[in-house]
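Exercise 7. Predict the joint structure of the components listed below.
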Amino acid sequence: MTSPYLLVDHVSKTFPPADGRGEGVCVFEDVTLEIARGEFVTMIGHSGCGKSTLLNIIARLERPTRGGVVLEGREVLHPGMDRMVVFQNFSLMPWMTAFDNIRLAVRAAHPTWPRTEVSAHVHRWVDMVGLTGAETKRPAALSGGMRQRVGLARAFSIEPKVLLLDEPFAQIDALTRSVIQDELMRMWSVSRNTVFMVTHDVDEAILLSDRIALMTRGPQAKLAEQVEVKLARPRRRAELIDDPEFLRLRTHILRFLVEGSLTPV
Amino acid sequence: MRRDRLRVVAYSVLIGAVLLGVWQAAVAGKPAGKSIPGPAAVAATAAHMLAHPFYDNGPNDKGIGLQLAASLGRMAIGYTIASVIAISLGVVLGLSPVLYRAVNPYVQVLKPISPLAWMPLFLYTIRDSAQAAVLVIVMSSLWPTLANTAFGVASIKRDYLNVAAILQLSWPRRLVTVILPAAAPAIVAGLRISVGSAWVAIVAAEMLIGGTGIGYFVWNEWNNLALTSVIFAILAIGVIGVLLDAGLGRLSRRLSYQE
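Solution:
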């Protein structure tokens, strides 16, 4: 039996109680998830089911209470460039220009590259995500959409083994969101990184993913089921709307989310 | 906006003129030596002193430019030493909440001590008055920078440190590209307070140690009963203080950022 590329192995997370006494809050329990190389897996769930916490555990920005994460057969014990995160709040360095934010990552990933090569690489990604002309601006001068373009360029430019997308479009207005989703799809179809994304947008999940993992409500959330998305790529938003398979998935997931929310915890 | 600025300038000039007028009226008609000199006498001395700021006629007779330069030189050394220590230690304390809390009581006790109170100890231990004055400057400009740096580093947004951790930046790189720029506005605010208190302390320190410097000059002119010189020196101290603050104000604007 071959081990999966990325394995989330029986991971539980309990936050210590605020007052230092008692049991603490168990956010999710015993989540096991296997992700194949090059696969795009999305986790969907209500707020508070701990999906972002799970993403942070894969990034090792947080520790699991029990269980562990294994990437290419090795346990993940530190944050690292092989698991780059695209953050919901962008997390760009506000004192750096868009260009320098991307360059920071490229330099870290390629310490032996000469300056000119680093710059050329950054410029390629600036062009790729449509930031040309805005690369000399600081994040505060950019719209949410433009900021997340910087975030995506920063993440893609260092070719991580696993790309972790933490509700990357949640803070972007709806019209821009679909444009950037399409850009993400285009970039991913070339790079074919392994992706773990967290979202609560059902359409976004179906549009982008190979597989969707559904979490029950927290606390003590569990991984309820995993849904394969067998829609041919490249996918086009306009065509998907009428696709019976798309509608079936959409209804299935929405029903899960709504009924899950009606189930008493 | 433009109108406002004009009015500000007009009021400023008016207030200055009133102050000068009150001063002049207060001393007018009184014989020299019975009251402080008036603005006209001070202006005459100022013109004379500014015409030859860098003359040197021996230890007790140097131009005001030389005296100010001596003070600024002394301060530059002490302030630089203090800033390097304060920023280094501040970064360490800011990154370690445990150390921060362990060291904080000591800082709180040391902070309110007048830097001049250390002077006898410094004189006794190093037996060199010039170096003792420099150490007084160090003590005067240590705490604001230290406290602000520690606070600034401790309140760096978790996100920036997370990105640095994911990118596996080496510690020197992390310091230069993330920690210091993120905390820069707070650090410069501390440096700005420090430069003010160092400039306040140097005058008093130089009165004690003698030799050179604007503080010594003030005391020496007092001993000569040259009050016009004393008043002019006071004004010069104020102007230099403003310039020092303005310099750091510019630095602060350059290093500030908007989230």
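Discussion. The interface with chain B takes residues 59, 61, 78-81, 83-85, 87, 89, 91, 93-96, 104-105, 108-109, 138, 140 of chain A (CB under 8 Å).
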